[in-house]
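Let us walk through a complete example step by step. Step one is to write down the protein sequence. Step two is to encode the small molecule, flavin-adenine dinucleotide, as a SMILES string so that its atoms and bonds are unambiguous. Step three, shown after the inputs, is the structure prediction itself.
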Amino acid sequence: MKIVILGNGISGVTAARFVRKMSNHEIIVISKETDYFFSRTALMYLYMGHMRLKDVQPYETAFWQKNRIQLIRGEVSTIDFHEKILHFDPKFRAQETILGATPSSVSYDKLVLALGSATNKFGWPGQDLDRVQGLYSYQDVESMEKTSQDISRAVIVGGGLIGIEMAEMFHSRHIPVTMLVRESNYWDMVLPPEESKMVGRQIVEHGIDLRLATGLKEIKGNDQGQATGVITNPGDQIDCEFVGLTAGVHPNIRWLKESGIETDRGILVDEYLQSSIKDVYASGDCAQMRTTRAGRRNIEAVWYTGRMMGEVVAHNLCGNQVAYDPGIWFNSAKFFDIEYQVYGQVPVESSEKLETIYWEGDDGEKSIRLIFEKIQKE
Ligand SMILES: Cc1cc2nc3c(=O)[nH]c(=O)nc-3n(C[C@H](O)[C@H](O)[C@H](O)COP(=O)(O)OP(=O)(O)OC[C@H]3O[C@@H](n4cnc5c(N)ncnc54)[C@H](O)[C@@H]3O)c2cc1C
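Step three: the predicted structure of the complex.
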């Protein structure tokens, strides 16, 4: 059987690895981004000079051949689900890659779509100017590297996890940063007020110009089509030569909308990660569960769920029916010097049914929160 996996991120590569552990099926993994799988979570360290691309690639080059996983670099532009063929974009095929020439098409018996996410853009005037970009792909880091030489200020729009990473990246190169955060405290739709304020203080202590309750109205540009500043929602003008768009991501599936596969925000899948089309699965950031489990969301764009889904898909491809069960929610992140970990549901606001114990260190940089359900007396 020929299994084609579109996407060489954590989800696609985990699916490939587990199919190989369980079978002798032919495996092809395709990506337009890089020849070899790398850790997306470590992208910031490339720009900060802590690591090179080869340092964030978990497997040696020989791994792929040894495990008989064929890699193809190329951009798939259309999928014919009826004929079971993927067609490559001819423009991309002209590019040289280590993996050799990209074919014009590839057929499959079973297909895994592990397409990842794309940066949100909300139709802001100027959002497509030069020197305006998100932080998702290896190409985004290359473009940051090129664009941010000798700039006097970067403005980052959005107060989530990727925004703070981008701020830290610029900070490491002593580039002044302004962060526009629409909410009244940093990431306060996820963090309870004390933690949200603690991270906000940490951002400010690192010299970032944090503007809370401030949105982006418009990005200004010059005659060469390059960003030169932003107008905020209260109407302030901030001059800058780089605008980072970090107001979240969405499943990277827009190019599939007319292909016949059933989608909503992501590719709709059942508990076996099977899509609406026979022999086609979706996995990782681009998959949307048809049924949402208690305490979970139907799209979860995090590393470990991508990995778990990849493993589940591999089982189902190899004929062992396994349902996706991510267990209880957990997540971790780093906000400059603060390490954050969460296990289970921590609501932003407590309720009558919940009891909370919260401790914060005198330095305002450490805290622990325990939340549990109150015992209901008869
Ligand atoms: C900067 C950053 C930091 C992060 N930090 C964390 C963290 O600390 N912890 C955490 O849990 N998560 C983190 N995440 C999220 C995590 O990295 C993602 O959830 C995860 O990498 C998604 O894996 P995936 O396999 O679903 O997709 P991806 O890793 O996005 O892989 C999809 C691949 O498919 C390719 N592709 C898509 N369409 C096509 C096409 N048509 N043709 C060819 N190739 C195609 C893409 O180019 C891409 O290479 C971070 C994300 C970013 C951007």
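Step four is interpretation. The two ends are 59 Å apart (CA to CA).
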